Amino acid sequence: MTDATSQGTAAPAPPRPPGLFARVARSWTGGIGLVLIGLVAASALAAPLLSPADPLAQQLSAGTIFQGPSAAHPFGTDNLGRDVLSRVLHGMRFSLGVALASVGIAVAIGLVAGTLAGTLGGWWDRALMRLVDSFLAFPVLILAIAISVALGRGAGGVILAIAFVNIPVFTRLARAQTLKIEQAQYMTAAVLMGSSLPMRILRHTLPNMLNPVLVQASVALSFAVLIESGLSFLGLGIPAPAPSLGLMIAEAKAYIALAPHMVAFPSLAIVVTVLGFNLLGDAAGDATDPRRRG
Amino acid sequence: MTAAAPVADSPAFEIAGLSVAARGHRGETALVRGVDLTVAAGERVALVGESGSGKSMTALAAMGLLPRGIRRTGGEIRLAGRAIQDLDDRALRRLRGDAIAMIFQDPMTSLNPVQTIGRQLVEAIRLHRPVGRDAARARAAELLDRVHIPRAAARLDDYPHEFSGGMRQRVMIAMALANDPGVLIADEPTTALDVTTQARVMAILDEVCAEAGVAVLLITHDLGVVGAFCDRVAVMYAGEIVERAPAATLFERPRHPYTAGLLASMPPLEADPDALTPIPGDPPDPRALPPGCVFAPRCGLADARCRAERPALIDRDDEGGAGQVSACHHADRVDRPEVFA
Fold first, then answer.
1. Strands across the sheet with B70-79, in order?
2. Residues of chain A with pLDDT under 70
């Protein structure tokens, strides 16, 4: 009786603890991260609307190239007289798109492989984990360059290269989470209810690993932006006229003394994007780790 | 081992000659040896013993859920007369949560933290019943109400962390009884709860089991719970059943020194705490069981015969205890512990 009255009818139900998103937004770093990523995402989405000019339109005359920031061209113009702001906005669109697509692919493949490895165990688990370990042993950028070279230029190659270097990370994470969740009593309870293995994975294993996967994904997104810029800088991204942040910096480095804004603005865009994802990932990590919860 | 006499109308749940062994580096180690146990519909039977006595292994074997490396080496499990130990995984899945259900020790982690109580109850129902979401939800609310969760319908959308430990165990009881199983195995259902909550949960378990007429096998080391809840008791020691008796008889007149020892080590309310007598020594290593009676090394009554010859489970009816069996050469010399005098 005591139980029922003190827990149920008398006291109102305790407020639901805030979800991951609310906890992240409440912290300093998470709040700033969300704002930065919000800005980046909004400008990337609205790039065609926000751009003052066509990012590919050239204006080749002495008065229109290498111009510093002005009202007509807030970020100035480049060596071909193209509007840098428009190119940065479109470059961010490309970078974010590549990052989201590649991390999305990596999450999908990594979750399936890791969950299977953790659930099935045995030789499949051991073989897969040795494979994953051998890929994790490569420096990320070197591996991405190698894959990108093998796949050829273009957005598809970049996406697959970045996805590939992230798959081992998510596979390991999903496997570790699966093993942890397997130990939980609700998995035994599900077996006792007559639930089948695929059903248990869908209803219990995957939903319970969502938070750590989201945390890892936001960190992976920041690396994806960096890798994409790196690949483009090296000429392994999309081909030249298309606006890509890394490519813009590569082109601009020849004129760094003459027109420093050509390097500064794309670099700033990368910094803001990577910083945003990093802060977000940090805050999400804090929010999901009970030992670090303030 | 005396085999259970065949009965015309089969009991709801029956374990016959169950043996379980663990594979090791040097052959198999028997963990459960020749356990016989029957539970009739509506009856509550307790399986009592200390940690490592094999009582949980018996329960897991009954559900067909022995951990890797441990297997059933003999015996039968029967549900309403039907042997289920050799069924394949799919057939077992159909029985679990439907004909036979189980609740266990830790209610804090028995529910999926990221799903609402209602969703989990609905899942338990729909796994076995071809009913729609709404019908299952109505049934879920009714189940929560049956285990006395206040404002049951409103609480379906709450998450497990919004329930106390006792309420979570009540939810587990509701879930176990969702499909009106014939048999419920309760493995230490209240061990993780505090004493007042324990009493409340056992009272609710008592009530809903009586309503449902379900056969209950209660696995516990808490003799206090047994006395209040169970009709009959089986005492397990080192993988064997050493005594079986109606609960009242067992408390009144134990016929195995181990049972007497268990009773003596139970803290009574009014007695002097110094009167508590622990059983000396430790249970034997299952890899090196004594040749005679498994309890002989710890037993005050043990003599040369006990150390050489393993006693069989013998009917003690002639000594006045109806339905009492015990495996002891000196059953007539077992004293009722002082603390109960």
1. B27-39, B13-24, B70-79, B82-83
2. 1-18, 289-294
Antiparallel, parallel or unpaired: β B27-39 and B82-83: unpaired
Query: Encoding tokens for residue A214?
Result: 């989201």
Query: Predicted confidence band at B271 (pLDDT cuts at 50, 70, 90)?
Result: low
What is the Cα A114 distance to its own chain's centre? 19
**pLDDT greater than 80 at residue B338:** no
Q: Which long-range contacts (CB under 8 A, 24 or more apart) does B129-136 make?
A: B129/B179
* B171, two tokens: 């939810």
Our CA-based measurement puts residue B92 at a distance from the nearest CA of chain A, in whole angstroms, of 8
Interface-testing mutation among A5, A119, A177, A193, with chain B (most B C-beta atoms within 10 A):
A193
End-to-end CA, chain A: 36
**Closest residue by Cα to residue B34 from B277, B317, B239:** B239
B27-39 and B232-237 beta bridge pairing: unpaired
B188 torsion bin: left (phi>0), alpha (psi -120 to 50), beta (else): left
A16 touches chain B (CB under 8 A): yes
**Structural tokens at position B280:** 């000396």
Token pair, residue A247, equals 């490519």
Q: Does A207 touch chain B (CB under 8 A)?
A: yes
On whether ipTM exceeds 0.95, the answer is no
Would the CB atoms of B200 and A208 count as touching at under 8 Å?
no
CA torsion through residues A132, A134, A135, A139, sign: positive
**Residue B324: partners with Cβ closer than 8 Å, 6 or more residues away:** B243, B244, B245, B246, B249, B250, B253, B255, B315, B316, B317
Are B65 and A3 within 8 A, CB to CB?
no
Which of helix, strand or coil describes residue B266?
Answer: coil
Q: A140 CA to chain B: closest CA distance, Å?
A: 34
- Side-chain half-sphere of A60: how many Cα atoms within 13 Å? 3
